[in-house]
């Protein structure tokens, strides 16, 4: 996908499209008129997301709408282009694979009009784990095992494609109507040229950022997503992130020292604490590997394949 900055000015005059189609990516022949807009699902830094119904097939989707006024700078256009391209690549690669389950939100198509860029996504009707934990305050360990097993599967699917998500957090983990977990928002994701390559740009969401990302010199790789898993497990079980403070610099200092503690009023098993500490190792090389996570003793007590829909509001009867 080439940005308009790289295409000729004549081409730009003829079309309102800011992206030109890449070879392996069809632009949706449908426009917004093919869909009926439904409820607002949520707003992000760049986008608004609505539920839509395809008027022909009656299928439901989520549509992410980015107003072009937010894409004036070449840098933001380039970022959105990369996000769409990488997300589409990941989603089609998983579809073409033998994987029975995908734990990545599917990106179907994108299209544009004069005002907006539209990204058609798999609808995750039960919204994000962030909203779930806000509603429930904190989750039971059995639920965390169930969600984490699916997150690990999603990360394995990304790793096979040499992709690091780099913004794994509760707000980017979505739940379908069947309660499947889907990793979404590829705004900061990158594909490494090879599995040993490193990236240097500082990015991520403050509470979830890994120590090596804060130190640009060191470079970072797949292990940043494992660190984020540690933050996710802690946050789901405790109800707030481990390094949260009122001051960003203080949070970063705590991250660099991996300084966190467990509140006394919340009962957390030794197995859960051990897995969290293995994810939150300062040295990325000492961090637990993705393949080892699922055989950690935290998972020994078992868990359902999917959490029941009732757990969106009520804790499960088993812990
Ligand atoms: P931004 O890139 O601007 O941060 P997001 O990708 O986070 O935008 O999307 C904004 C909000 O839309 C999310 O916080 C979430 O509530 C909702 N959302 C995003 N994708 C989906 C989806 N596939 N299904 C349901 N809701 C979604």
Automatic annotation (TrEMBL):
GO cellular component terms, A-Z: nucleus
InterPro entries given in the database record: Kinase-like_dom_sf (IPR011009), Prot_kinase_dom (IPR000719), Protein_kinase_ATP_BS (IPR017441), Ser/Thr_kinase_AS (IPR008271)
Kinase keyword on record: yes
Binding-site residues for ATP, renumbered to this chain: 64
Entry keyword annotation includes ATP-binding: yes
Domain Protein kinase: 35-299
GO molecular function: ATP binding; protein serine/threonine kinase activity
Source domain of life: Eukaryota
A matching Pfam family: Pkinase
Keywords in alphabetical order: ATP-binding, Kinase, Nucleotide-binding, Serine/threonine-protein kinase, Transferase
Family: Belongs to the protein kinase superfamily.
Subunit structure: Monomer.
Protein name: Protein kinase domain-containing protein
Lineage, broadest ranks: Eukaryota, Sar, Alveolata, Ciliophora, Intramacronucleata
């Amino acid at each position: 996908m080439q940005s308009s900055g790289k295409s000729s000015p004549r081409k730009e005059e003829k079309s309102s499209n800011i992206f030109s189609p890449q070879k392996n990516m069809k632009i949706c022949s449908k426009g917004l008129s093919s869909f009926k807009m439904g409820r607002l699902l949520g707003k992000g830094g760049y986008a608004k997301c609505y539920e839509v119904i395809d008027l022909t097939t009656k299928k439901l989707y989520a549509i992410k709408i980015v107003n072009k006024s937010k894409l004036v700078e070449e840098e933001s256009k380039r970022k959105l282009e990369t996000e769409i391209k990488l997300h589409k690549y990941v989603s089609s690669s998983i579809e073409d694979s033998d994987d029975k389950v995908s734990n990545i939100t599917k990106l179907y198509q994108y299209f544009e009009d004069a005002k907006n860029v539209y990204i058609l996504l798999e609808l995750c009707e039960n919204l994000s784990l962030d909203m779930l934990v806000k509603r429930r305050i904190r989750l039971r360990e059995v639920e965390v095992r169930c969600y984490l097993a699916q997150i690990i599967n999603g990360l394995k699917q990304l790793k096979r494609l040499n992709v690091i998500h780099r913004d794994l957090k509760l707000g980017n983990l979505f739940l379908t109507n069947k309660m499947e977990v889907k990793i979404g928002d590829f705004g900061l994701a990158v594909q490494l040229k090879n599995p040993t390559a490193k990236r240097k740009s500082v990015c991520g969401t403050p509470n979830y950022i890994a120590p090596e990302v804060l130190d640009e010199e060191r470079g970072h790789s797949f292990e940043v997503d494992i660190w984020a898993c540690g933050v996710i497990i802690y946050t789901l079980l405790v109800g707030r992130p481990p390094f949260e403070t009122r001051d960003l610099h203080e949070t970063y200092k705590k991250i660099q020292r991996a300084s966190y503690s467990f509140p006394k009023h919340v009962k957390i098993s030794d197995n859960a604490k051990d897995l969290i500490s293995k994810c939150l190792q300062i040295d990325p090389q000492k961090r637990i590997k993705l393949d080892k996570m699922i055989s950690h003793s935290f998972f020994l007590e078992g868990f359902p394949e999917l959490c029941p829909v009732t757990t969106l509001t009520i804790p499960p009867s088993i812990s």
